[in-house]
Amino acid sequence: METCFGKRSVILLWFMALATFCPSAWGEVCNKEQKRALLEIRNSTDGLAFKDFDGGDCCEASDSIECDGALNVISLSMYDIPISGTWIPNVTLFTLFGELEELHLSGINIGGELQPFCELKRLKSLMILDLGSNSLEGNIPSCLGTIENLEQLDLSRNHLHGNLPSSIFSNHSPIVVFDVSDNQLDGNIPSYPGIIQQFDLSNNRLQGNVPSSIFSNQSQISLFDVSGNQLEGLVSFSIFANSSSLDYLDLSSNHELEVETESPSWISTFQLTTLNLARCNLNKKNGHVVPSFISTQINLQYLDLSYNSLEGSIPCQLFFNTNTTELYLRSNKFEGSFLDCFINGTVNLRKFDISDNHVKGTLPKNFGNLFSSLSHVDMSSNELEGKIPSSFGSMSLEILDISNNILSGTIPRSLTGNDSTPLVYLNLSNNTLQGEMLPRHSNMTKLECLYLSGNQFEGIISPAISNSPALVILDVRDNYLSGNIPKWLYDHPHLVAVLLSGNHLEGHLTQRLCRMQRLQVFDVSRNRLSGGIPSCLDNVTFWKKSSPSSTNSNYFTQKGRLYYLLTRSNSSDYGLSFVSMFRIKDKVYTFKGVPLLLMTGIDLSSNQLTGGIPIEMGELSQLVSLNLSHNSLTGSIPISFQNLTRVETLDLSHNKLRGKIPSELVGLTSLSAFRVAYNNLSGRIPFERQFSTFEMQCYDGNPELCGDPLLRKCSSTNQPKDEKDEKESNRIIDHPLFFYAFVTVSYAFGFWAFFGILIIKKNWRQKYFRAVDRYIESFLEYLSKYR
């Protein structure tokens, strides 16, 4: 008996091992219909989905396919596949996987409406459906709320609109995680959330109030995000008092919403890790105070109270929660010095933003030791004074913005001299810093954005810039820099914006400028540059052919952090955006933030440039702004400017241009600011389309211009000579052969005109010879007297 039992045990163990290491021995892994479905899905995506599947074993073919122990396909994943064009999937193919529990189809550009996905009701085991980051349109069909065991539904980042379906929020719906963020949904928030625990409705167009019934005694909601909508009314924090599971709360960016945390009184039963109350009129009725309950939130990791007009001093308790790593207090009315909080102890913060307040004081020498964990610091637009502490160099800073303060002294070498520094963004603009632009031996190898404008830096453009190969934006406007624009700057591989205006730079703009293929904005206005404008500017890719919104945005996306910095505008995301100013009609036009991906501009104004405007500049079809004013440019306005189809501001004033304003320019439909005042232009002003909106000040100082909007009527004397004829005439007259031919012809004509008459007229000939004889006799008589 023992022997038989032992044999049976061995056989059983052998079969278990066979099942584990050789599952195909039990039977076919996925049936023919499922294999056909996978192949059809793969083919419909140009072979990008399930690319390793060749029609054989489903469970071992790809990481995108997951099976259970019984060899059933339970998960299919198609993340971020670069399908060209819109993909309309055959949803019935997915229903062939009867045991499917998870279906991930995010980021693959699925188009059409959601209704076909109602076929997934056949899948009785489906628990997760992820359709985020696609191009789905239309309403959310109610049938999705009836998928029998669906627990997680992600429809975020699509183009959905309409109201939220009530079926999603019924007791019969099993959905506990519901994400429809970043769509165009409207209507009100349902007053009853069903059994939903994570509720993300952010960045839509939802209206009305925040229903207090959502947070009942039975509520299990852990995540509630309604930021970026159009909600209104009053929200008292007392409605959250009994939501013991609440972990993540975001009510930010609802401009008509009022949030009160101090009344009526309440006691928190929850422990938040994330709290975002930015831009929601916080405690407007209670003196704009910082919420007192925050002191009880010991697990709080992320806190944003920005844009709320909060007053008083910054409470020290906000700095010393050991779990808080991100603190954003920008654009309030805090005053005094927060530095008194740090007499003892250090802070665990990694990201810290108190910009745009009224904070005063001197940064302590040991700042870097107190905030040793900081990687992101924004203390811009306050009233900080004194020197920049050298201890900043001891922190692992990626972002430092202390612009728009009253800081003085020089840039500490420790901040810029370490080649291992992770510094990506450095903004010291608009202080009273002095000395060299950068300390010698600066070596910021990862730096992408450098803003030093509005200080008192002297000397040349620092050669240390060449040690920052990743640099994309260089802004040193309004300093006292001198010398030439260095040749090595033109060879910098990634520069997108070069802003050098308001200095004492000299020399010429060389042909090397045309090597800067990524350049979008070039501003050297208000300097002492001379010479002509390079004719090769049409070689710069982003000024001529490519759309910056497509090509350079891909570049920024690849660079990751910089794209994040330049495009995110929420208070908590560091709105560290590109800013450029162009002077048109004595006004300053500012381009800021996201427009860096769309903005292209050239500003050469207020220099000593001479010569004509190269006709090649008319090929820069991607330019948004062009300013050549206040120079000594001559010649005519190129007709090729009609190709500047994206230009919005065009200033050619205060030069020596002549000829007419080309009528072809009326086709520039994007043009909103145009100025040619104080030149030598003549003829009728084009007065159609956009040009009918420009005022007479745009044309002042051109006495031979006529027509609307000037009060001077046109006559024949106002009409300029045809430009082509004038050029041909000037070309012939200026040729040296013309001079010699003219002298020869004139001499021959005079000779034969005189002697020809003598030959023809006999009496004139006789009179002429008698007169000659008398002159000869008189001359001989005169000579004989002196012999």
Written overview of the protein:
With 787 residues, this protein is an alpha/beta fold. Among the domains are: 24-195, Ribonuclease Inhibitor (Leucine-rich repeat, LRR (right-handed beta-alpha superhelix)), CATH 3.80.10.10; 472-733, Ribonuclease Inhibitor (Leucine-rich repeat, LRR (right-handed beta-alpha superhelix)); 736-769. The chain is 16% helix and 20% strand. The strands form seven sheets. It has a 24-stranded mixed sheet, with no helix packed on it. It has a nine-stranded parallel sheet with strand order 17-19-21-23-25-27-29-31-33, with no helix packed on it. Strand 36 and strand 37 (587-592) form a beta hairpin. It is extended. The relative contact order is 0.03. Mean pLDDT is 84; it is low at 1-27, 547-582 and 722-734.
Protein topology:
Layout: H1 2-21, H2 32-44, E1 65-67, E2 73-77, E3 102-104, E4 128-130, E5 137-138, E6 152-154, E7 159-162, E8 177-179, E9 184-185, E10 198-200, E11 223-225, E12 232-236, E13 248-250, E14 256-260, E15 274-276, E16 302-304, E17 311-312, E18 326-328, E19 333-336, E20 351-353, E21 358-362, H3 367-370, E22 376-378, E23 383-387, E24 399-401, E25 406-409, H4 413-416, E26 425-427, E27 432-436, E28 449-451, E29 456-459, E30 473-475, E31 480-484, H5 487-490, E32 497-499, E33 504-506, E34 521-523, E35 530-531, H6 541-544, H7 551-559, H8 561-567, E36 579-584, E37 587-592, E38 601-603, E39 608-612, E40 625-627, E41 632-634, E42 649-651, E43 658-659, E44 673-675, E45 680-684, E46 704-706, H9 723-733, H10 736-760, H11 762-784
Parallel strand pairs: 2-3, 3-4, 4-6, 5-7, 6-8, 7-9, 8-10, 10-11, 11-13, 12-14, 13-15, 15-16, 16-18, 17-19, 18-20, 19-21, 20-22, 21-23, 22-24, 23-25, 24-26, 25-27, 26-28, 27-29, 28-30, 29-31, 30-32, 31-33, 32-34, 34-38, 35-39, 38-40, 39-41, 40-42, 42-44, 43-45, 45-46
Antiparallel strand pairs: 1-2, 36-37
